[in-house]
Amino acid sequence: MVESLIMLYRVTVNEKEEQLKGMQVAENQWLTLEDNELIKAYISGEFAAFECLYNRHKGGSFRFILRQVKDSTSAEDLMQELWFKVVSNIRQFKGESKFTTWLYQMARNLMIDRFRHLEVVSGVIAETEAREEVASDWRQTADTDLVQKRQKAALSRCLQKLPKAQLESFLLKEEGNLTRSDVAQITGVSLEAAKSRLRAAYNELRTCISRVLGENDD
């Protein structure tokens, strides 16, 4: 009898372990899917797929809004409105473009509707990493934390000085991780114009950051 109970217990434990593994697999399976696949799964009734989609893009979309509206409360309101519109209109997404292009176009339109003019102003810029060309020229091995803090402060200061068209293009590229073609589509300009704005933004940032860091060394 005791041996039978022990065997039953072991079977029960094994079944629970398998169930937990199955739940973990079910959660992790969404992480490997592309955005369009997550959308199809969500439309089919898998809410966890949308949760994964939201977690994947909430950070970038919030920073994109925050850095242009300055006020965190307004940014949070716009963020809620943005994702409410995503949920409301998700069935209209046909997958002809990337989800991020659709998402950031919607975010941009919301800000234009809210403020009538897309006012790119100096904002609350936090936890920013200077990436690609902007950061690479100032990477150092010694005093890494201090160097990174100085670079972040310099980038924050210099972003505030960019013309609004350049800043918007830069944020779409960096926060949205969008291609130059996507940036052109969202901002309604030609590909060459988008490339020109991005080149100008990176050049302005390089010059400004170099100057600011040089001032700090004096």
From TrEMBL:
- What taxonomic lineage is listed for the species of origin? Bacteria, Pseudomonadati, Pseudomonadota, Gammaproteobacteria, Alteromonadales
> Which domain of life does this protein belong to?
Bacteria
The Swiss-Prot or TrEMBL record describes its family as follows: Belongs to the sigma-70 factor family. ECF subfamily.
To which species is this protein native? Answer: Planctobacterium marinum
Q: Which GO terms are recorded in the biological process aspect for this UniProt protein?
A: DNA-templated transcription initiation
Q: What Gene Ontology molecular function terms does this protein carry?
A: DNA binding; sigma factor activity
Entries under InterPro entries matching the protein: RNA_pol_sigma-70-like, RNA_pol_sigma-70_dom, RNA_pol_sigma70_r2, RNA_pol_sigma70_r4_t2, RNA_pol_sigma_r2, RNA_pol_sigma_r3/r4-like, WH-like_DNA-bd_sf
Name of this chain's protein: Ecf-type RNA polymerase sigma factor
Query: Ranges for the RNA polymerase sigma factor 70 region 4 type domain?
Result: 154-202
One Pfam entry for this protein is: Sigma70_r4_2
User: Which key words tag this protein in UniProt?
Assistant: DNA-binding, Sigma factor, Transcription, Transcription regulation
Q: Which residues form the RNA polymerase sigma-70 region domain?
A: 53-117
